[in-house]
Write a structure and sequence with these properties.
alpha+beta, Immunoglobulin-like, eight-stranded mixed beta sheet, single chain, globular, 4 domains, 30 strands, 14 helices
Length: about 675
C-alpha cells in the first residue's frame, strides 16, 4: 500500500528469501554457512499519533545456515525500537522469529516526520553472517496541514499547521497557467500562511486544474483543491454531480485511494471512472522493490500505455525473462513507485491508469496476474458510456450502449455443446492488455484477464461471436455484447496507436474481428474500414492465408497448385518459409529445399491457427461482413481446411479447438 492503515507496520523489503537460502544450503547451493536474517534491505515502519505504538509489530526471521549451533545477538542504536528476544542460540539448520515493536513510552515523545535507527545482527560464535538493517520510522501526526476554503477576495487558500511539530509544505500545480505564491515553505505548530493563486501566461485557463498542497514531512493533511476560470475569473471549481463521491475504488483486487473524495461512477462495462484531477495516495497492492537485493519490482502501474513504446513497460521488472533487454523495464513508467501520502500520484483528465498485480515467480509467461483500469475524465460521462480506450491520451466518450445496433444479432438455433452465457461472459469481464508488440505481448496478458496465446484468444473471440447470434433474447446477450464490444474499442485504439498483429504462427490471431464486430454494432465507419485501410501484414489471419500465384518448385509448389487457397505461418512477411505440406511429418515435395525453420512452421497449420478461426469467420458470413473483412483467401482457405482434414480423418483438436464453433459452421456455413 502507499498509505498504510493505522496500526500496521510495513516493509519496503516484502520478500522473504530465507527459505530459498536454506534450500540453497541444503542442496549445496551458494548460500554458504553462517547467520542469515530475512527480509533483507531497509525496513520502513509507520505509526500514527493517537494510536497505540505497542500494536505496531513485525517479524525478523533468523536462520542458521550451518550444522553447528550459533549464539546470536541483535542490538539497536535507538530507544524507541524494542527487540524480543534480543539474543539466543540457533541449532544447525534452525530458525528463530524475532519481534520488532515500538517502545510505547519513547515513541510518544517523537515528533511527526522520519526517524532513523540501525539494528545490528551479530553471530557471536564465529561472526559469519553479521549484518545491519536500517529502520525508518515515519511518525504521522493525528493533525497536520490544514487547507482552508478558497478566499474569493484574495484568490487563494490559507494553510495552517495544526500539528505539534514543524512541517514542510509545497504546492504542486498541474498547469503552466497557474502559479502559487509562495509555492513552498515551513510552518511551525499553529502557524499559518496565505497562498495566492495567480493566472499566468497569455492563454486562458481551460478546464479543471489540480492544486496539491503537500505536507512533505509526514503527509498528514495533504489536500488536493480543484480550480478553474469562469468568465476569466480564477476560482474553486464546483464539485460535479456524479453518482457518488468516494475516497477509494476497488476493481479486480486492486484499490486506488485518493487524498480527497472524488466524483466517481462506472462505465457500462463496469470499469470505474473519476472526474479529475485526482491525487492518489495509495495503490494496493503496492509496487515495491523485493527480493534479496531489491532486484525485482512488481505490481506496477502505467499511464496511457502505448505500443509506441515497444517492449518497454513499467509493470514488472522481471517481464520477458531470458528475452529481456536493457529497455524491458523502465521505472519511470511505473507511476505506482513511491506513491504515498507524502508523494501522491496526481492525474489530470484524459488519463487511463492501468494498475497490475504480478504473478509471483519472475520470468513467468504471462508475468502479470491481474490488471484493472481507472479512467480520469474531465466531466461526468453519460450513464451508458463505454470506457474510452486505455491507450493514448484521447479519452473522448465516443460510444454508448444506446448506439448498439442490437437488431443485427440473429436468432440461430443452438447446437450440442453450446457453452453457457456466464462462462463466455467471464472471458471478457476484465480488460485485455495488449499494447506490447509481437509475441512478447504474451508476457503482459494478465492471466486472470485473458489468454496469453493467440489460439486461445481466437477461441474466445470465435465463441463469443457465435453466442451473440444464437436464439436467446437480446436482453440475455447484453452483458456479453457490451464486454465484447469494449474489447473491440480497445483493439481499434491500439491499432491507431501503431500496434500491429502480423502473421506469427499461433501468437497474434484474433484481433481483427473484434474491431469489425464493434464497428458493425456501433455503426462506426472508421472501425468498419480497417479491412480496406490495413493490409495482410497487419493482421495475422490475413497474413497467413493467400492464393498460390505461381509455381515455386524450390518450396514445393507445382503448376497444378496455382490458384490454391493456402496457409503459411508468416506468408506476408516471410514468404520464403511457405510450405505446401499439410503436416510436418510428411516428406518434402520433389525438388523442394529442406529448411528446418519451414518444418517448424508447418506444425502450426494444424495446432494453432485455423482450428480456432471457425467462429469469427462464420460470424462474418452471418453478419454480412465478409466484404468488410476484405481478404478472400482467408475464407477460401477455411473451406479447404475442413475438406483436407476430413480427407485425412483428422477430427480432433487439430480440426477444431472447440467443438461448438465447428458444429455451428457445419450447420450454417452453406446458408451464407
Amino acid at each position: 500500500m502507499c498509505r498504510v492503515p493505522l496500526h500496521v507496520l510495513t516493509f519496503l523489503a516484502l520478500a522473504s528469501p530465507l527459505l530459498a537460502a536454506l534450500q540453497e544450503h541444503r542442496t549445496g547451493g551458494p548460500a554458504g554457512e553462517g547467520l542469515r536474517a530475512a527480509p533483507r534491505g531497509d525496513l520502513a515502519v509507520e505509526w500514527t499519533v493517537g494510536t497505540k505504538p505497542k500494536e505496531v509489530r513485525t517479524i525478523l526471521t533468523l536462520g542458521n545456515m550451518g550444522a553447528e549451533p550459533i549464539d546470536w545477538e541483535i542490538s539497536t542504536d535507538t530507544d524507541w525500537l524494542k527487540i524480543e528476544p534480543s539474543s539466543g542460540t540457533l541449532q544447525g539448520g534452525g530458525r528463530r522469529r524475532v519481534d520488532l515493536t515500538l517502545d510505547p513510552f519513547r515513541t510518544l515523545s517523537l515528533l511527526p516526520g522520519e526517524h532513523d535507527a540501525t539494528i545490528r545482527i551479530e553471530n557471536r560464535t564465529d561472526g559469519r553472517g553479521d549484518s545491519e538493517r536500517r529502520v525508518v520510522l515515519l511518525v504521522r501526526g493525528d493533525k497536520g496541514l490544514s487547507v482552508g476554503p478558497f478566499d474569493e477576495d484574495r484568490k487563494g487558500y490559507c494553510l495552517t499547521n495544526e500539528g505539534r511539530g514543524a512541517i514542510g509544505w509545497r504546492a504542486r500545480i498541474q498547469s503552466d497557467h497557474v502559479a502559487a505564491d509562495p509555492s513552498e515553505g515551513e510552518l511551525g505548530p499553529g502557524e499559518s500562511v496565505f497562498v495566492s493563486l495567480v493566472s499566468e501566461g497569455s492563454d486562458p485557463l481551460e478546464g479543471r486544474v489540480g492544486v496539491l498542497f503537500l505536507n512533505e514531512t509526514d503527509g498528514t493533511g495533504s489536500t488536493l483543491r480543484i480550480v478553474s476560470a469562469a468568465g476569466g475569473e480564477l476560482g474553486e471549481a464546483p464539485v460535479p454531480e456524479a453518482p457518488a463521491l468516494e475516497t477509494s475504488i476497488e476493481r479486480f483486487g486492486i484499490t486506488w485511494t485518493f487524498s480527497d473524495p472524488v466524483p466517481t461512477g462506472r462505465f457500462v462495462n463496469g470499469d470505474p471512472w473519476v472526474v479529475g484531477p485526482v491525487a492518489i495516495v495509495e495503490i494496493d497492492p503496492r509496487s515495491v522493490p523485493i527480493g534479496r537485493d531489491h532486484g525485482r519490482t512488481m505490481n506496477g502501474s502505467m499511464v496511457n500505455p502505448s505500443p509506441q513504446r515497444g517492449m518497454t513497460q513499467g509493470y514488472d521488472s522481471a517481464t520477458y525473462g531470458k528475452y529481456a533487454g536493457d529497455d524491458a523495464y523502465d521505472p519511470r513508467l511505473n507511476v505506482a513507485l513511491g506513491c504515498s501520502g507524502r508523494s501522491p500520484l496526481v492525474l489530470g483528465a484524459n488519463t487511463s491508469l492501468v494498475s497490475t498485480i504480478s504473478n509471483p515467480k519472475p520470468g513467468m509467461r504471462p508475468q502479470l496476474k491481474t490488471a484493472a483500469i481507472l479512467t480520469v475524465l474531465s466531466e461526468v460521462p453519460p450513464p451508458d458510456a463505454f470506457r474510452p480506450p486505455y491507450t493514448g491520451s484521447d479519452k473522448t466518450i465516443r460510444h454508448r450502449a444506446a448506439d448498439l445496433q442490437r437488431e443485427r444479432l440473429t436468432q440461430l438455433p443452438t447446437v450440442p455443446g453450446t457453452p453457457s452465457f456466464s462462462e463466455v461472459e467471464a472471458m471478457f469481464e476484465r480488460p485485455w492488455i495488449d499494447h506490447v508488440p509481437l509475441w512478447y505481448g504474451r508476457y503482459i496478458h494478465p492471466s486472470e484477464n485473458m489468454p496469453d496465446y493467440g489460439r486461445e484468444i481466437t477461441d474466445q473471440v470465435s465463441t463469443a461471436s457465435l453466442m451473440l447470434l444464437i436464439n436467446v433474447p437480446n436482453e440475455e446477450k447484453e452483458t456479453l455484447l457490451v464486454r465484447f464490444v469494449q474489447v473491440g474499442i480497445d483493439l481499434f485504439a491500439l491499432l491507431r496507436e501503431g500496434e500491429r498483429w502480423p502473421p506469427s504462427a499461433g501468437h497474434l490471431n484474433g484481433r481483427k474481428w473484434p474491431i469489425l464486430f464493434a464497428g458493425l454494432m456501433l455503426g462506426d465507419e472508421d472501425m468498419k474500414a480497417i479491412g480496406r485501410e490495413y493490409g495482410p501484414e497487419d493482421f495475422s489471419e490475413d497474413g497467413q492465408t493467400f492464393l498460390v500465384d505461381a509455381p515455386r518448385p524450390e518450396l514445393g509448389y507445382t503448376r497444378e497448385m496455382v490458384g490454391l487457397p493456402e496457409w503459411s505461418a508468416a506468408h506476408a512477411t516471410r514468404p520464403e518459409l511457405d510450405d505446401p505440406r499439410w503436416d510436418a511429418k510428411e516428406s518434402f515435395p520433389p525438388g523442394a529445399t529442406q529448411v528446418p525453420l519451414r518444418t517448424q512452421n508447418v506444425k502450426y497449420r494444424l495446432c494453432c491457427s485455423a482450428n480456432a478461426w471457425w467462429g469469427e469467420l462464420l460470424a462474418a458470413y452471418i453478419l454480412g461482413a465478409k466484404d468488410l473483412w476484405n481478404h478472400e483467401p482467408l475464407f477460401l482457405y477455411q473451406d479447404r481446411f475442413l475438406q483436407e482434414n476430413l480427407a485425412r480423418r483428422i477430427t480432433d483438436y487439430r480440426l477444431s479447438w472447440r467443438p461448438f464453433y465447428l458444429a455451428m459452421w457445419r450447420r450454417y456455413r452453406d446458408a451464407y
